[in-house]
Amino acid sequence: ARRPALSPSILNADFGHLAEAFRQLELGGADYVHLDVMDGRFVPNISFGLPVVEAARRATSLPLDVHLMIVEPERYIGDFVAAGASIVTIHAEACLHLHRAVRQIHETGALAGVALNPATPLTAVEEILPFVDLVLIMTVDPGFGGQALIPAALRKVERLRRLIDELGLPAVIEVDGGVKESNVAAVIRAGADVVVTGSAAFPPGGSTVEALQALRRAMQG
Ligand code: DX5
Ligand code: ZN
């Protein structure tokens, strides 16, 4: 059986105390740290960039799962890997030459992921699927934390799971957007190998360690 991984996003953390956020993620048993980079162009919001990835690299030994929600991501692949990214995920919608960009990521020594927005069909990754380490299925339109998961996007996860299994490919499926304690079991059942949790990992006024422990229990079904 697959052991699903937890990749909490720091988007909803207190940016004045990031080192503490990383410590809580380690204590809570996170497998990765998910870093949401937004440029205000690919998505209608600006989050953070290279300095925060570098700071994360210094503050934690967890692998950094960097989700680039930026246009022309190929221009910054080298910089994000140099900053400490273990996984670099770029959006199919943001990149004209996906095959070249994936090769670029691999040449830097990082793992390569390709992300799809909820309205983008699976066929957008069909040709690149044999070459990627990870496919990130967005279950909300990217840009903001705290949105509700779009149920139809889970059907897409199920179809991708079947496709990857039928073809015997190594790519793992990451699911990002609106995942919380009440729906994480369904997300895993749909076929996710890695789940991202932003707002559910940093409940306002609550404990991140406890939130992650609760998520982990819910993931087990
Ligand atoms: C959405 C980001 C997600 C998001 C997750 O734009 O890519 O990683 O912040 O946050 P929640 O879990 O609150 O949807
Ligand atoms: Zn993300």
Name the strands of the widest sheet in spatial order: 1-8-7-6-5-4-3-2
Q: In CATH terms, what is the architecture?
A: Alpha-Beta Barrel
What compounds sit in this structure? D-xylitol-5-phosphate, zinc ion
Task: Supply the number of helical segments.
Answer: 8
Classify the beta-strand content into a percent band: 15-25%
- Please report the total strand number as a whole number: 8
User: What is the CATH C level class, in words?
Assistant: Alpha Beta
CATH topology title = TIM Barrel
Q: Structural class from helices and strands? A: alpha/beta
- Unreliable segments (pLDDT under 50, ≥5 consecutive)? none
Shape: globular
The radius of gyration computed from the alpha-carbon positions, rounded to a whole number of angstroms, is 16 Å
Please give the share of residues in helix: 25-40%
| Major sheet summary line | 8 strands, parallel
Assign the CATH superfamily. Aldolase class I
Order of helices and strands: EHEHEHEHEHEHEHEH
Kindly give the count of domains: 1
End-to-end distance, in Å? 13 Å
Mean pLDDT: 97
Binding site for substrate: 9, 67, 143-146, 176-178, 198-199
Family: Belongs to the ribulose-phosphate 3-epimerase family.
Keywords: Carbohydrate metabolism, Cobalt, Isomerase, Manganese, Metal-binding, Zinc
Catalytic activity: D-ribulose 5-phosphate = D-xylulose 5-phosphate
